Amino acid sequence: MIDDRADWTQEGHFTDANGVSVRCYDCVELLRSMPVRSQASGTPVWTLPVGTKATVLFFTSSIPTALDLECETADGFCFVNCTAENTRLLQRAEDKHAPNQ
Q: Which residues lie closer than 8 Å to 27 by C-beta, 6 or more apart?
């Protein structure tokens, strides 16, 4: 469980499982399945599969680095917390929003 009192930030960068530098709003991929917890009770209600795409919203400067992610699902999106070692960079934020060339 991620500590809610953690020092969350959007400044700077962290490293993913491959040692690649990642920033907020970059797109990452989950390298392990992650439980999605009920906001009311905190208990897992379903699981995101390996390979789920997510946008980094916030991260902590502590080790292990905790991430706050907005994850794409078949029905829309959900929010989940995990550690950086369970993700890899898929796409930089500036590439996601670049006009087609």
A: 53, 54, 55, 56, 89, 90, 91, 92, 93, 96
Please write the tens of the pLDDT for every residue from 20-70. Answer: 999 999 999 999 999 988 777 778 788 999 999 999 999 998 889 999 999
Residues 6+ apart with CB under 8 A from 13: 21, 22, 23
Rounded to an integer, what distance in angstroms lies between the CA atom of residue 100 and that of residue 53? 21
Q: Show the beta-strand stretches assigned E in the chain.
A: 8-9, 14-15, 21-22, 27-30, 34-37, 44-48, 53-60, 66-73, 76-83, 87-91
HSE at residue 67, side-chain half, CA atoms within 13 A, is 32
Peptide bond into 44 cis (omega under 30): no
